[in-house]
């Protein structure tokens, strides 16, 4: 089954909290297994013994574990944490999430979670993983309900045991049924998403089962029962692939070459603006064809109807967002960027030449002072690009919008032009070192006039524009 079809079905189907959408975690919401990041951390810190490592490998490559076997494996894993504060483990979970787990989120899963949330369904994550593994992603997805393996504590410290039964196999569907009963959920109308052989009982326990990239036993059972499988895109091939590294090197090579040419030609002609325009146009011309990263733009006409303007971009990937910006705006723009960018080789020099306003986010007064030249830049006829979120997000979730860009546009008397980027993180997420091939989608929305805005209007405008981004990402325009 195609994810887009399912999203349309969810939107057109019954709504309300009496219908649940149950998502497994490892292999369903994320690509791979979050425990791998934990084992890697323990291995680096010499906390993982050879016996436990051997048992873990056997469990991951052998037949499906029974609930008793899985519980034994969990006890193996947490034995070394006895006596340590639970808060320390939760903090480690946050670090592991930011360091890699966030980048393994299936974007198809994220869109399905959002589609269920728009329908008012009760979204639940049911997983045998521990709270430290799943809590950061649940927060990012806005999922309130989590059934997971809970580690027992005494006075805030881990005891080396688990609370109750681990949600594994029959134990998982039992926990889900209890949740359904407590929350008045109609199981026959509800959805479940899972990938593991042990999750057949979970999928069989709802009226709308969705195997996701199913493992062999689950795939066979799904075919026998007529459950249509969903295929989520994975960036991992399971074999050595030099292409991402070469692609990324080419992408940065195109950037450095374009920046160097722009700086040189701008200096030769004593025209900084010409140099910047040459650099951005050259990067746009080189980067896509050389790297197999395509940019698909709808509403491009809106980028040209009112200039100068303050262009907003939602921000997840610095390099890919810059590629989209050069494709959409092309010439006649500068940017607002964090102060650290000024120290980057070549890029910092190009941005400095372009008159970029560098913001010190740790100092509010300096940030306000840095925006004043941007007002003059706009009034002189050059557009400004900025990210209203202020920083890159770890996932496709849209962060809160800051007010600076709204004040900037109102003071300069220019419109705001929203550029909504749908999937930059699929190509190169925030902490990625390499870029994937693929198509980045961007939608340029009609300019928003700031005529008549007063400081008292800003809060309402921030809310309205952010809502516009959310609505566009939920219902992508075709032209």
From TrEMBL:
Residues 309-424 form the Phospholipid/glycerol acyltransferase domain. Coiled coil: none annotated. Gene3D superfamilies: HAD superfamily/HAD-like (3.40.50.1000), SG protein - dephosphorylation function (1.20.1440.100). SMART domains: PlsC (SM00563). It comes from the Bacteria. Keywords: Acyltransferase, Hydrolase, Transferase. It holds the Pfam family Acyltransferase. One of its GO terms (molecular function) is hydrolase activity. This is HAD-IB family hydrolase.
